[in-house]
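User: Sequence recovery, please. Input:
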C-alpha cells in the first residue's frame, strides 16, 4: 500500500461528510464536530466510552494493540468487573474500526519515547 491510499481515504471521508453537512438544513455535522489529528480520535474514543475522559488513558495501550488483556482479568476501567463482561467488545470494535492507521499505536510510540527520555 502506498502513502497515497490512506490520504485518499481521508479525503473521500471528508468530502462525504461535507456533502452531508451541505445538504442538512441545520448546517450541522452528522457525526458531531471533532478536533483534528489525534485529538479527534481521542474525542471519538471518549464518546464511545460514555464520555469518560479518564478511560481513554486507561485503555490507551489496549487501543494501540501493544497490550493484550486476559478476558478474565479485571477491566482497566476500575469497575471491578471482568474485562470480557465490561469493555472488551467496545475496545475490540474501536481497534477494528481504526484498522492499519491506528493513531493509538503512534501515540504509544510517543509515550515510550517520552518515558525513555525521562529515565535518561
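Assistant: Recovered sequence (120 residues):
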Amino acid at each position: 500500500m502506498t502513502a497515497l491510499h490512506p490520504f485518499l481515504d481521508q479525503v473521500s471521508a471528508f468530502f462525504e461528510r461535507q456533502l452531508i453537512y451541505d445538504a442538512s438544513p441545520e448546517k450541522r455535522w452528522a457525526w458531531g464536530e471533532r478536533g483534528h489529528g489525534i485529538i479527534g480520535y481521542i474525542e471519538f474514543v471518549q464518546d464511545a466510552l460514555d464520555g469518560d475522559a479518564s478511560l481513554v488513558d486507561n485503555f490507551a495501550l489496549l487501543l494501540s494493540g501493544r497490550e493484550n488483556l486476559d478476558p478474565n482479568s479485571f477491566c482497566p476501567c476500575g469497575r471491578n468487573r471482568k474485562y470480557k463482561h465490561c469493555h472488551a467488545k467496545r475496545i475490540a470494535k474501536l481497534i477494528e474500526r481504526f484498522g492499519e492507521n491506528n493513531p493509538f499505536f503512534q501515540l504509544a510510540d510517543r509515550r515510550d519515547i517520552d518515558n525513555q527520555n525521562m529515565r535518561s
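The longest helix spans residues 4-23.
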